[in-house]
Amino acid sequence: MREFFAGSVARCVELQLAASVGTVTDAKAWLDDHANTVDVLLTDLGLPDGSGLEVIRHATRLNPACEALVISMFGDEDNVLASIEAGALGYIHKDSTPDDIAQTILDMRAGASPISPMIARRVLSKYQSDRRRNNRALAPVVQAYPAIKNEANAGGDTMPQRDLLSPREQEVLALIARGFSYTEIARLADLSVHTVQTHIKNLYGKLSVHSKSEAVFEATRMGLLSRHD
Question: Is the pTM for the entire model greater than 0.70?
Fold first, then answer.
């Protein structure tokens, strides 16, 4: 499987295969070498000497702009959510592996978050179930303290939220909301694509999201995006 993926990347003129290893130990050793750089990490979770989650955390700690894509036989919600929390931007089940993984990587670099339909359905079901449970638990609290909520809204808590983002992050967020790609944002903001990716990575962290659509939704909810953005 690893050779299949490596061959797909190697044949793509828009990508360069940086390395192909089979263990957590080898991956960490390669990443620790300052002569090596990587923009995309493709990993399984079940490795002979540990979990691919260790590799994701290690890679993103060394290079926050590194984008991780998981391809694994583990399709349960816990593993998927753990991967996302570790920094993965995509999760594909091995049963639905694309014929051309290189195109999937290019799509991810363009802003997509590839995920197998089966896994997406499971995660959404879990999210909806958790949300319903949380709403039931919070209902008595909301009813008991309506005045406090109204006072907070009347005080206009949007401005402190805006301080959450730097001016550049706010600019990038507004361009994301308008549907521009990484390359288009870089051109419009007079930045390198790498810098744009770093800003977006920081945005995801501050907003606790994992995709551009989630970032726009959460930013709108928090008052970080006006209707004119």
Answer: no
